[in-house]
Amino acid sequence: MKIDLTLPRQIYANVNLPASKSISNRMLIIQKLSGGKIELSNISQCDDTFVMEKALEMPSDVTDIKAAGTAMRFLTAYFANSPIETIMTGTERMKNRPIDILVKSLHHVGADISYIDREGFPPLRIKGKQLPGGTVSMPGNVSSQFISAMLMVAPAFTHGVTIMMQGEVVSRPYINITLNLMRRFGIRIEEPDKYTFVVYPGKYGEGSYTIENDWSAASYWYELLALADKGEVTLNGLYENSLQGDSCVKELFEPLGIKTTFKDNATVVLTKENPTIERYEADLNHCPDLAQTMAATCCAMNIPFSFSGLQNLRIKETDRLAAMKQELATFGYDIDVLNGNTLCWTGKTLDTNSDYEIFTHEDHRMAMSLAPLAILTNKLTINDPHVVSKSYPNFWNELKQAGATIFRSTK
Fold first, then answer.
1. Which helix H or strand E contains 56, and what residues bound it?
2. Alpha-carbon distance 122 to 124, whole Å?
3. What is the DSSP letter of 9?
4. Assuming Cys at both sites, which of 77, 138, 268, 291 could form a disulfide with 235, CB separation 3.0 to 4.6 Å?
5. What is the pTM assigned to this prediction?
6. From 47, 48, 246, 289, active-site residue
7. Which 8-state DSSP code applies to residue 237?
8. Could you tell me if 127 and 85 are in contact, meaning their C-beta atoms sit under 8 angstroms apart?
9. Cα 333 to Cα 326: distance, rounded to the nearest angstrom
């Protein structure tokens, strides 16, 4: 399926953002480990969370998590310490996303996990049992989800676990979300230094928790307003003291002319001012999910950039570095990928025609970060727009309410 998208030059919108997928998926694991004694509200209504809920509610001989990378990592750790046997599998892309770091760490604390096809990649055969725990070393520069998966399940190990992270740690704010939620529900964790976590055995306590809305989803509205001639956007369900690392989007977009004002407990108003930057350099190690949004925005605003700290984007839903280079070329932007961890643009352009069509690469963030570039065109054709259901199912409807026109493409 394809759609044709046009956007107005002025953006005025009042947006009901989706609940945070990252917090929802963590809380579903914690809720299960509490014995169901935690009441959750405002759970994300996206594909990744549906997959997680189904797997936890109805364990089966085969657990197909489709394209949900978070579910693959979190459930692998959860099932390894559960009294069930299952095969963990997913889409073809999922079968090419490495999981060996997590599996080796789980092996080290006593897990029975084997590879069905290729060494280091799903599908996995998991024979769950009570794990003793112990001490493990885990590289911090690949995916924070491996570390979060171990952390959340560790209290259920007989002796808990000590995790020593090696090297640079990517997406540290996501690990901090995990630690915060664990402590909130009674788990004792010590941090003798910034690379070590000591998780003591224990039981998650009962209680209730309301999941905040998603700052990652908010980033696309920052982009839309930045590219518009004028406008104002109200975003609902966001907190100034958010757990989410991607709340840094408010600081990242300030030099691009977007001012963030908190009106009350959970309402943010975005207004447009003049940009204050001519070239943008930033290390996005702590918020790599914002890289596509930042790159697309800067290109469209004709602001050269260098965004580093993006090494883990190569193992996401697609190789996001290569995909951004390919799709931004459609609009005439000749960006470079350097050292496997940096997106940069010198301002160099390519010849293009006026037939703008992009491919989403089975990646929700490709679709949503590139959609605002329709402001620059008479019409933008988007392939496989349904991918947004992974994290923001109502994205296209929200765009319509902001004045977009969307039709099924005749191409």
1. helix 47-57
2. 5
3. S
4. 268
5. 0.92
6. 289
7. S
8. yes
9. 9
DSSP H or E segment with residue 252: helix 249-252
Q: pLDDT by residue (tens digit) across 82-100? A: 999 999 999 999 999 999 9
* Cα dihedral 104, 105, 106, 107 sign: positive
3-state secondary structure of 221: helix
Q: Are 331 and 306 in contact (CB under 8 A)?
A: no
Amino acid at 74: F
Six token digits for residue 49:
């969370």
Tokens coding 57: 């509610």
Residue 132: beta bridge partners? none
Q: Side chain identity at 147, as an amino acid letter?
A: I
How does pLDDT run across 258-292, given as a tens digit for each residue? 999 999 878 999 999 999 999 999 999 999 999 99
Q: How many Å separate Cα 272 from the centre of its chain?
A: 26
Distance spanning both ends of the chain, measured CA to CA = 10
The residue to which tokens 């009674």 are assigned: 186
Lookup: tokens for 91: 């889409």
Helix 144-153, helix 69-80: angle, nearest 10:
30
289 given a catalytic annotation:
yes
